[in-house]
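re: ur question from earlier - yeah i can do the single chain one, its not a big deal. heres the input i used so u can compare w yours
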Amino acid sequence: MQENTSVEHMGIVESFKNNIVRVGFVSHASCSACLAKGACAVSEVDSKFVEVKTANSTWKIGESVTIVLERKLGFKALWFGYVLPLLVLLSGMIITYAITGNDGLAGLVALGVLIPYYSLLYIFREYLTNKFQFTLKKI
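and the output i got, formated as tokens:
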């Protein structure tokens, strides 16, 4: 049995301009397959858009496509988006509390250390955009 090396979503081409294809797709929460989703307020469906750089100019608006992202890049995005900020937040809180013993200050510093973290992500957004490239496949 071969392991999936990519994550795929079905989408529709919304626009095509300057070699950038904007594709809309519907994102389902992980619990959307649950039988109890009708009685649960946690399950959700959300419309999202992805912009994909492409040299291929044969895309047509309204065309159905498959958006593909390598699974290892998905884990890397998870790392930068959730795990690393959590570690930064907890480190700031634990270190501040160990030094000062003040709960309130530790909480404020924990939130404050996220400002430089997300600022760095913003500064390196072009680099990250080039690293996290989606590809398109015609259906």
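The longest helix spans residues 71-100. not sure if urs matches, ping me
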